[in-house]
Amino acid sequence: MKRAYGLATTIVFLIASGAVALGQAPKKPAASGEDVAGTVAILDHVWLDAAHNHDGETAAWLFADNFVEIHPGGILVSKEQQVEMIKNTQLGDIAIQSSDIQVRYASPDVAVLTDTTTIRGTQGETNYGGQYRVMRVFVKQQGRWRAAGAGIARITSQ
Amino acid sequence: MRQIHVGALALILSFTPLAFAQTKSAATPRGGVDWKELDHKWLDSERTGDLDYLEKFFADSYVLVLANGQTYTKKEWLGILRGPDRPTLLTLDPENIQVHVFGNVAILTDHTTIKGHDSKGNSLDGEFNVFRVVIKQDGEWRATGVVMNPDLSKK
Asked: How confident is the model at residue A29 (pLDDT cuts 50, 70, 90)?
């Protein structure tokens, strides 16, 4: 079941990478005519699905080599560190869901979006439960969109 | 209800990114860009209230995410900076600056120590790890995003 879900995720990812995304975000066509906003909006979900499913392979494929992320609490992680965390099933399962995806900037080779990510669960001794405002950066390299980085802030004010 | 003292905190972080670069990656120009100089100008503009420069330096897509998750657009944020509750910044000390360049976008991370206060005298002191995104538009590098995080390892 889990494998099937992972496969489905990969398929979605491949479709998204082919820039035929279904357009779940505000339309901001790049100069090339590609629906960049739609593509990265789907990649946003793929990213979180990979994390949820401990799918390090998809995460490694998605992340650019120079990927960088700042976790809540200010922890800075590289691509290798982030992939290892995703792969580590001993850390436990967490439910992750994104909403309110807003593509803030889109060009033929760069996209920046923000979303609200809701997490339920604990990994290791850390309870990640809560809502987070996330900024994700995507770049197009060798014709394929990759995740370049993310900054995450826990939402404590409404 | 957005509180101005929180905005002031973000102000400090969002405008103090790369000054005093202390890492090789920030001190060494990449792709022909002197990131240290760029960030010094950014910081100096914040200190002097050079909003004309910031208006140009911030891309229209600029968005600021504070450490509490509050979000401001360029228009909203510059509105705060132009307002009467502008914070007083005594110390802005970014360290461990790292630059990740991906063609027309660069991600900058740093650790920033802040000392200052808002217009009501509330302390803004703190240490943060900050995620910054700069994009290249029409040949110019512009800020398009900032996400702040309290450095919990310092508490």
From this structure: very low
The mean pLDDT of A11-32, rounded to a whole number, is 38
pLDDT under 50: residue ranges of chain B: 1-24
Tell me if chain A has a CB within 8 Å of the CB of B80: no
The DSSP result for chain A, as a single string, is -HHHHHHHHHHHHHHHHTT-----S-----TTS--HHHHHHHHHHHHHHHHHTT-HHHHHHHEEEEEEEE-TTS-EEEHHHHHHHHH-GGG--EEEEEEEEEEEEE-SSEEEEEEEEEEEEEETTEE--EEEEEEEEEEEETTEEEEEEEEEEE----
Is B33's Cβ below 8 Å from some Cβ in A? no
CB contact under 8 A, B61 and A105: yes
Summarize pLDDT for A31-53 with one digit per residue, the tens.
Answer: 567 899 999 999 998 999 999 89
pLDDT of residue A7: 37
User: What's the ipTM?
Assistant: 0.80
Which residues of A lie inside 8 Å of B (Cβ-Cβ)? 64, 66-68, 70-76, 104-105, 107, 109-110, 112, 114, 131-135, 137, 139, 141, 148-157
A40 near A106, Cβ under 8 Å?
A: yes
For the entire predicted model, the pTM comes to 0.80
Report the distance separating Cα B8 and Cα A22, nearest Å: 39
